[in-house]
Specification:
Serine Threonine Protein Phosphatase 5, Tetratricopeptide repeat, 32% strand, alpha+beta, single chain
Length: 288
Amino acid sequence: MKMKKILFSLFLIVTVSIAEAQISKASLSPQVQIEQNVGVAKIGITYGQPGAKGRPIFGALIPYGKLWRTGANSSTKISLDQTVSFDGNTIPAGTYALYTIPQKDEWTIIIHKNEKLWGDAGYNQSNDLVRFKVPSKKLNDYQETLLINFENFNANGADLVIKWEKTEVKIPVFVDSDALTFNEIKEKVIDADGSVHPQTYFDAALFYYEKNKDLSQATTWLDEAIRLRPEAFWYKYYRAEMAYTLSDFTTSKKYAEDALAAAKSSTASDYGYIAKCELLLKEIAKKE
């Protein structure tokens, strides 16, 4: 027992000595973390960001045809809070490692189920969720540090872009935002068990309105939102706009005038609704 205590004490001394001997210094490949809303999904990416530093990268430092961690240090991580599609491949919600195999004209993209590896050490292809290929292209402008981000947003997706040195690849990301939103409306409004917040009614009504789906139902929800929160003049403005769309110009005028009066008397801000109401009233006058 005495010997165990001595050995344990020596272990603590060595551990403390090693910790004290370590020097804090800036990483040459700092870790980058981004979190981006793509459609209604939230996508997080974590990667080590190396610099080219005058070195040839693809086909040299990063050989063609070989597995790459798609960054520096630990493997690059992708986290999803919803099911999304990467270039037509379904990826369930979860956290994954992103590996790639660069080639001159195309890259193999690998979504790997084991995200805990250091780089590609211990990589096993049997743990790949999906593999697919996307074209690569030559950049006109030089990209000194590896950059992974999103571009070309739309309501249902974006492009996941990888750029470094003179090379760029784009991975189309699709999120079925409409289906997810319809499901959420069904859960929180249509099948709601208990009271519904006025903003929830408003959001549901506006989504139906934007999608031109069952405007009668959208009107009912918006009326309920106004009943629960009559001071919200922006609710009344959209009720006027919805009535205008349905060619009910008398109702549209009533709500537009109510919204305009409330917006003008607002002690905070009119949030641009004075101008919106005045423009809508001019359009209504043309129909009278």
